[in-house]
């Protein structure tokens, strides 16, 4: 049996769906570990369904992160209700009781991915109810990962930021993800962290370089990710080893910013 030892994190994938990677790409679990990746798994759920089905999914997601730690992949996770996975019977006032058992897990860093897809009233109710956890005693230690969609990105991001404006006291603990060149400035201007996804469907290495040229502050408040799940993407790892930026800039974007935001150790120890 392979001996597992503590290793230094070379880069952080600040948003992926580790449960889906483990299910669809089992060999990639070993790939992530050997590449020196520290994964932060965001919840998704894969569709609406019922509240019991959602609870079962969230438990399975949590259990996957714990199980993979035993293979030496020392991941962490966010829990929450994604806008594509809101059960029709889920009441906003029931969200706290649904999520608290998972938020109490020592590997859970907060709530995510949450946000808006269509911006209808139902989505907004569920989004706000999850953000309200920041006001609770447990919320003192939570971060929030906010999703933005590919469709109507600028409009939906603006509506998302309008809601987040009520939570500016916690702006240092909120990351708005899947930012593009068109939306990054608005996110940074409002004081939030920004996530940029390196993949063929979202942003390229050239896009990241252009973002840094246009928004110099992005170097200190941007985290990179792959958003890998049922489809696996190596663009983040290729960017890390590309030498397309000065080494200190690459390290900040691909590792240190995320370690700071999620309050994670640099040295990863297997379970």
Note down, in words, how this protein is organized.
The structure is a single chain. This protein has 271 residues and is of the alpha/beta class. It has a single domain, classed as Metal-dependent hydrolases (TIM Barrel). The protein has eleven helices and ten strands. The strands form two sheets. Strands 2-3-4-5-6-7-8-9 form an eight-stranded parallel β-sheet. Strands 1-10 form a two-stranded antiparallel sheet. Helix 5 links the parallel strand 5 and strand 6. The longest helix is centred in the first third of the chain and has 19 residues. The relative contact order is 0.16. The N terminus is likely disordered.
Which descriptors would you attach to this protein?
8-stranded parallel beta sheet; 11 helices; TIM Barrel; 271 residues; alpha/beta; globular; disordered N terminus; two-stranded antiparallel ribbon
């Amino acid at each position: 049996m392979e001996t597992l030892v503590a290793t230094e994190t070379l880069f952080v994938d600040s948003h992926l769906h580790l449960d889906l990677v483990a299910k669809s790409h089992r060999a990639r679990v070993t790939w992530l570990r050997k590449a020196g990746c520290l994964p932060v798994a965001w919840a998704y759920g894969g569709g609406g369904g019922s509240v019991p089905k959602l609870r079962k999914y969230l438990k399975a997601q949590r259990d996957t992160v714990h199980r993979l730690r035993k293979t030496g992949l020392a991941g962490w996770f966010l829990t929450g209700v994604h806008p594509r996975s809101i059960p029709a019977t889920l009441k906003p006032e029931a969200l706290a009781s649904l999520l608290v058992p998972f938020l109490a897990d020592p590997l859970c860093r907060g709530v995510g991915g949450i946000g808006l897809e269509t911006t209808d009233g139902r989505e907004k109710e569920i989004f706000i109810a999850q953000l309200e956890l920041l006001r609770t005693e447990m919320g003192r230690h939570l971060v929030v990962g906010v999703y933005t969609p590919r469709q109507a990105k600028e409009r939906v991001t603006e509506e998302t930021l309008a809601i987040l404006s009520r939570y500016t006291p916690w702006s240092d603990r909120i990351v708005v993800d899947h930012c593009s060149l068109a939306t990054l400035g608005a996110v940074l201007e409002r004081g939030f962290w920004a996530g940029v996804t390196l993949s063929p469907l979202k942003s390229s290495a050239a896009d990241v370089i252009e973002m840094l040229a246009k928004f110099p502050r992005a170097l200190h408040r941007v985290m990179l990710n792959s958003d890998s799940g049922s489809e696996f993407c190596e663009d983040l790892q290729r960017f890390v080893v590309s030498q397309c930026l000065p080494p200190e800039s690459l390290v900040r974007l691909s590792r240190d910013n995320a370690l700071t935001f999620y309050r994670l150790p640099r040295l990863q120890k297997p379970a």
